[in-house]
Amino acid sequence: MRASLLLLLAALALPPAAQAQEGWGLAADIGLGAETEPDWLGSKDMETSPWIIFRNFDVTAPGQPATRDGSSDGLRVVPTFNWRGGRDPGDSEALAGLDDIDRTIEAGVRFRYTRGPASGYLVVRKGFGGHDGLVGAVGAKYRIAPNERLTLWPGIEGKFGNNHFTRTFFGVTEGESARSGYEAYSPDGGFYAVGASLEARYALTPTLAVVGEAEYSRLTGDAADAPFVEEKDQPALRLGIVNRFSLRF
């Protein structure tokens, strides 16, 4: 983790890539910040940790200019990555007797369709590490630009996972039941949370920007009924700084 943070800080210090308009283009916001979110899915306690930012990935055709924030019209299919925190029985009395869950790298694709200020998206990722299930989200956002520097995206989102994911984070196996005193619980896959968010981006230079997110999610379905869940409301706050990198080839 320390090496990753150092690489990100070095990347932010680099000058932006040349903005020649010929050839295919790749662009993304890369940066670093801090996030405050529940200690684990269903926790009532919050924790603050580093926020490694890789977002607004965009692909542009030959001759098409790179976008400032990835909000170009049309259908985009781009790679997506997520770092999901783990869970330790020592994090809470509610988890006593349950298994550890390691941190997980999630990799997959994002399908996004944008028309004017409105966009809809579907994200599907595969877990490697703490869980090996499929997880993702479906949602919609609306772009508001009060001025040349500030851009806002209010949005709604539903988060889903398959059986492997939900049973890892919300299930209770027979062995865990014997140790914890909870009844065995085997939730089905499906939507495990729904919510709303507000993203903001304030441009400091043509490539450097401050970004932030305020998110409210509520556990739903079988996830909300897990016997060890302390709190169904799951808010999160994030703040960081990014540099927009563009590459033409």
UniProtKB/TrEMBL annotation:
Family note: Belongs to the MipA/OmpV family.
Swiss-Prot/TrEMBL keywords: Cell outer membrane, Membrane, Signal
Keyword Ribonucleoprotein: no
Name of protein: MipA/OmpV family protein
Location of the protein in the cell: Cell outer membrane
Organism: Paracoccus niistensis
InterPro entries reported in the protein's UniProt record: MipA (IPR010583)
Signal peptide positions (record): 1-20
Entry keyword Acyltransferase: no
Main location: membrane
A Pfam family of this chain: MipA
PANTHER family according to UniProt: MLTA-INTERACTING PROTEIN-RELATED (PTHR38776:SF1)
